[in-house]
Amino acid sequence: MGYLCALGAGTLWGTTGPLSTALYAQGAEITGIGFWRIAVATLAFLAYGALRRDLFAVDRRTLLLAGLLGGALVALFEVAYQFAIAGAGVAGAAALLYTAPVMVALLADPLLGERLTATRLALAILVGAGAALTVRGSGPAGTSMDGPGAIVGVVGGLMAAAAYAGTTVLARSVVPRIGSVRFLFLEIAGGTVLLGVLLPLTGRSPLPPATGVAWVYVLALAGATVLAANFLFFGGVKRIEAAPTAVAATIEPVVAALLALALFAQHLSVGGWLGLAMVVGGVALGYARDAARAA
Predict the structure, then answer these.
(1) Each residue of 130-182: pLDDT tens digit?
(2) Which of 64, 186, 193, 260 could link 266 by a cystine bridge, Cβ 3.0 to 4.6 Å?
(3) CB under 8 Å to 266, separation ≥6 — which residues?
(4) DSSP string covering the chain
(5) Is 0.70 topped by the overall pTM?
């Protein structure tokens, strides 16, 4: 059951890129998709909190850490990842996002005292090279990955990975005190508020989806990729160790690549598939090694 939960989480996360791409076709703004994705999820949490009032029981320090800092990281992730999907393709964006564990390994040394070993460094290089190969070998048929749009996509993907890595490091210090559900609520609520304030200031007010089909995609993004995927992942962690749960969830970029190929003709070259295998293998080996050391 633990592995099924983790595989389910990774599969649902893998639909983020295809659902976002479908929203682009419905005329949705890149910067608005991330806002509505977490705004709808926040509303669902507020409804849940009406039944479980302890969801809102947090002290000021936790509110600042999870709500403000965590919210800022979520806001950055939601905008940056959409630019990554649009510019680098679904598979390329997912591969770039999976450089986050590499960043966590690098950040964990100075921030958490977790030593950066030679093996971790080698796996970091493997994942980084794999991400580069995936981006070079991905994209819609007939397009070039050398143009300015692709560069924006790569920058967006790396910024999204950095935000995700920052959230992971923050969660390691906050979640043991308040629990994963409350942390998730605080960070996405904070991200919703920050995007709701900052996007209009930049002239990119998040307009609501224009069609019923677009609303269906937004609801699917919020319900499947934010709420259901995270609760499945938490369910996996409760049943099996965190490292093998994370290994099973690395199915995400594979699902994203297959859906992008089937639905939007976003092909991967042989080098792209090799790069994707390097990303998934490098991340999985890193988690598996951590689990073995813990055992």
Answers:
(1) 888 888 887 554 444 555 678 899 999 999 999 988 888 888 888 888 988 99
(2) 260
(3) 89, 90, 91, 138, 139, 140, 141, 260
(4) -HHHHHHHHHHHHTTHHHHHHHHHHTT--HHHHHHHHHHHHHHHHHHHHHH-GGGG---HHHIIIIIIIHHHHHHHHHHHHHHHHHHHHHHHHHHHHTTHHHHHHHHHHHHH-----HHHHHHHHHHHHHHHHHHHT-SBTT--SSSHHHHHHHHHHHHHHHHHHHHHHHHHHHHHHH-HHHHHHHHHHHHHHHHHHHHHHTT---PPPSSHHHHHHHHHIIIIIIIIHHHHHHHHHHHS-HHHHHHHHTTHHHHHHHHHHHHH-B---HHHHHHHHHHHHHHHHHHHHHHHHH-
(5) yes
Buried b (16+ CB within 10 A) or exposed e, 121-148: eebbebbbebbbbbbbbbbeeeeebeee
